[in-house]
Amino acid sequence: MVHAALTEPDRLWSAQEVLVRPSPVPAAAGVYGWHFEKAPCPDLDAGRLLYVGIAPRYMANRTSTQNLRKRVRYHYRGNAAGSTLRLTLGCLLGIELRRVGSGKRMTFGKAGEATLSQWMAENARVCWIERDEPWTMESELISQLDLPLNLDQNRQNPFHSRLTEVRSQARKRARELAVSA
């Protein structure tokens, strides 16, 4: 049942729909799934679930302030330093990763992040399900579904090594470039 709610959702939401106020995304705990009308690389299939995330993450020593609304909205309009999904998509799309600020954080820079946000607005669609303790489902979903854009706990996926290498090469190139403003 949970799998179908993510793999074959009743509704997929666009950036335009999610970013309005009030947002339709609940400020609650849960699991979200990302589908793409156009895949971020030719080796992946469009029109299906490629990534799942949870909000909040399990934290033994403190309470997370994250929820579905904050995470989904951040993925659509944040930056690669705060979103592994954005980092993955930008690297697959060939957007140049750069060190920013003090040089420790890496994003696609102002222009690159805007390009990625536009690509996501055109191609990325999201669905979600509310769950009180979403971290209890994450491992199960990743092990049972084909989620090529998830890296954590997903070494068995055939796309894992390729994605790991693409991201590693982007970070290596970013370290060779001057820090961006």
UniProtKB/TrEMBL annotation:
Domain of life: Bacteria
Domain GIY-YIG catalytic: from-to ranges: 48-168
Protein name in UniProt: GIY-YIG nuclease family protein
UniProt xrefs under Pfam families: GIY_YIG_2 (PF20815)
InterPro entries for this protein: GIY_YIG_cat
